[in-house]
Amino acid sequence: MLALLVPSDPDWVRRALHDLDEILVDHAHCEKKAASSALALLFRYPERLELAFALTRLAREELAHYEEVLGQIQARGIPFGHRVPAPYAGRLMTAVRREEPRRLLDSLLCMALIEARSCERMRLLAEAVPDPALACFYGGLLRSEARHYRTYVSLAERVGPRTEVRRRLEELARHEAEVLARVPAMARMHG
Predict the structure, then answer these.
(1) Distance in angstroms (rounded) separating the CA atoms of residues 178 and 71
(2) Can you give the pLDDT at residue 83?
(3) What is the mean pLDDT of residues 60-75?
(4) Residue span of the structural domain in which 56 resides
(5) Which of 29, 30, 38, 185 shows a CA-CA span of 20 to 30 A to 145?
(6) pLDDT category, 178, cuts 50, 70, 90?
(7) Can you tell me the distance from the alpha carbon of 36 to that of 38, in angstroms, rounded to the nearest whole number?
(8) At what angle are helices 132-159 and 49-75 packed, to 10 degrees?
(9) CATH assignment of the domain containing 65
(10) Can you tell me the distance from the alpha carbon of 153 to that of 12, in angstroms, rounded to the nearest whole number?
(11) pTM (whole model) above 0.85
């Protein structure tokens, strides 16, 4: 299943429910960033055709999710604009090693962990949001987020041996838990 070592703090759900508008706006930005990250890997590693098809599918699906979240925002009359991102992803990526192919391996695994955390938080929202339509919306995204996690881990296994991938995923999951413990308490998908 998901390689997360620690669950989200229960206070995260309370903060999210207190400011669902902010969660939705941040969620839209996260989907856009997820698409951008998949495309960035395509541009950084054009010779890696074994990754290209999966990454293009991921980018398209993330953009479709972006549109879906924008639809939720528009339907609720929520103002949409720029947000300073929570420091979670940036801090997680500090563990990416510099030399190749380890850089690619770590990047894929960090993306997997971001997807895993998104999946966990969307499940929490699906279970807690009082608006049935919004709860259903978040419940509908769970399979996609879990599949994105598995896709990134599978792509990492094309870059390095499975035993190395599993070991490194455990190391990065420990780092992710430390990052999560240190990010400021915010009404954000990863805050």
Answers:
(1) 34
(2) 85
(3) 98
(4) 10-182
(5) 185
(6) very high
(7) 5
(8) 170
(9) 1.20.1260.10
(10) 26
(11) yes
